[in-house]
Every structure is written in structure tokens, then in C-alpha cells.
Amino acid sequence: MLAFKYISFHYIKYFAIILLALILFLVGFDYMGSVDKLNISANLLLIYLVYKAFYAIDLLLPLSLIFAMISTKMLLIRSNSLVSFYSLGYSRIDILKPFVVVSTLIIVAFISIHAVSNFARANEFANNIRKNAQYLSPTRDLFFTYKDKFIYFSKMLPLQESAEGIRVFSFNNNSLKEVLVASKAMYRDKFWNIDKADVITKPDNVNFDSLGIKVTESENLKILKGFRPKMLDQVYEGKVNFTIKDAIDAYMLLRSQNINTDVIKSVIYKIFIYPFFVPCLIVIIFFFVPISVRFLNVSIFSFAAIIASLMVWAILFTLSELSNHKTIPGEIGIIAPIVILFFVSMRQWKKYSLST
To answer: How far lies 74's CA from each of 31, 173, 277, 307, 313, in Å?
Structure first.
């Protein structure tokens, strides 16, 4: 218990320092590159920097956990604390457990934050501020299918949960049956509510004896059950920065309509599975670290460990991005690498637990 508390304390301390340093670096570097484009008020600039900081946390938190483990292990070696713990009867597994437990708990908390906030959309909000001087810009010319209808929104405001310039095209036997035209719709009680609309109906048989096109006025219409504004914005704009709720709702809805859900599945995999490469990599790296400065140049080893961690993280991040853009399936780009790392780490764990 003494070793667990001591190691956990230093691990969390180094994690906080490294994460803060990486956040300041990324945000500062981004600000220097975008300062000419940020012709906005001071309060919007502050919001922009905060969203960029959230994006940096989302991107760099896993890497910070690995760097913190390397730094903590170097501290234990240089101060001879590691040798002292081994002398007191602690095994390698006992020293490893604080890193695995703390990193796993932080990752679980990190995933939980995605469930209760728009953490995943921080970079999107920041880019909207830079381009449009507002953190949530309207989506224009949104055209999509829903069941047997084609829907067009001239303008949609996800934050206000409203849309303008609505056209709903209904088909029957591959022939246009009617067109609903409305100036505005509001999302309320899981429906898009239209107060007043014109319904243009085409006769089944167009000839000289038919009455022609009929236009009627309808009121209090409800369409698109369950299609929330944020879901529409994310799915049909091709974005991949879903929150957990949006991703799950989008997956269930698109699956019920037999629409391809590869992107949504990749997003879900990235949220729930991708971060767990951290404890796996921690286990793998841990057992390669020497126990004393007499056995190896610690500075060179720590540098090599950091470079190796960056390379693994870069490969995993690239594969996840390829999965998000449907270049490769999410099962291959996200799940398979994490499973491989898991089995390698379990092999290492079992090997050294049997030898102690």
C-alpha cells in the first residue's frame, strides 16, 4: 500500500505537469499560426483558446499518461527508490499496478466526460469562431433521405434547434407524389414541428382530363421523428466529432434505415476502445525499463521510450483517422491494433508475474 500511494502520487503529479505543458504548447502554437485570422472580440478569443485547450486535452491526454509513466519510472530509478522497493519485497507487478490502475481510472473518467458534455466538438467550435466569429455556425443546403422521403433544409441552426426553407419530397412507386414547402420548423418533443406549410400534390396520372397539381395549406405538422438537430448536423455534414449520445443515437437510427453505419461505428470504437491502448503500452514499456542507472544509460533509454511511444501513438491515431473516413473498417483500424497491444501486454504481465 505504501508503494502504491507513493508511486500514484508522483505519477499523477507528472501527468498533470506534462499534460499542462503539452496543452500550452499546442494552444500557443495554434494561436501564433491563427492570430492574423482571429479578428474577434476579447471574449470570443478567450472562448476560442478554451475550446482549443479542450481539444488539446482530447488529443494529448493518452500520450501524457504514457510520458508520465516514463518520467515517474526515471524518478524512481535516479532516486534509488525502485531498488529500495524491491529490497522491501515488492515485485515488479506491485510497482506496475499503480500505473495501470491510475491510468485506467483516468481514461474511464475521460470517457465519462464525453458522455455528459460536447468535449468532442471543441475543435469544431474553435474553428467556427475563427471562420465565422461564432462557435456554432448554421448548416446550409442540407439534403438527405429519411425513410421514403427526401428532405431539404436551406438553413439549420443546431443550437436554436430550428430550420428554415424546408422542402419534403414524398415518392410513391419511384414517382414524385407530393412536396411539402414550409418556411420554418422547430425541433420539439422529438419531432420537427411545422406550424404552417403548403402541400403540393401531383395527380397519379397526368393527362388532359386530370385536375392538375393541387396546392393545400396544412397546419401543425410533425416530421422526422427522433432526428435531433445535432445528429443531422453531424451525420449529413460528414463530421466525425460525435458526442457519445449523438453517436449512439445516430447509429441506432441509421441502422434502422439500413444506411451504412461504418463511420458511426468507428467513432464509437475511438471513444470507448482507442484510449485503452495506454495501459497496454504502459505494461509493455515498463518491463523494458532498467532497475538501476548502473545497467543502462537512463537518459538515452527515456529518450528512446518517448520516441517509441510517439511512433505507436502516431500509428494508432492515423489508423483511427483512416477508419473515420471509411478508408479502412473500424474493426481493422481501431479494434485490431488495441487487441494486439492487449495480448502483448498480457504476455508480458504473465511472464513477469510467474517469475516473481
So the answer is: 33, 71, 21, 15, 21
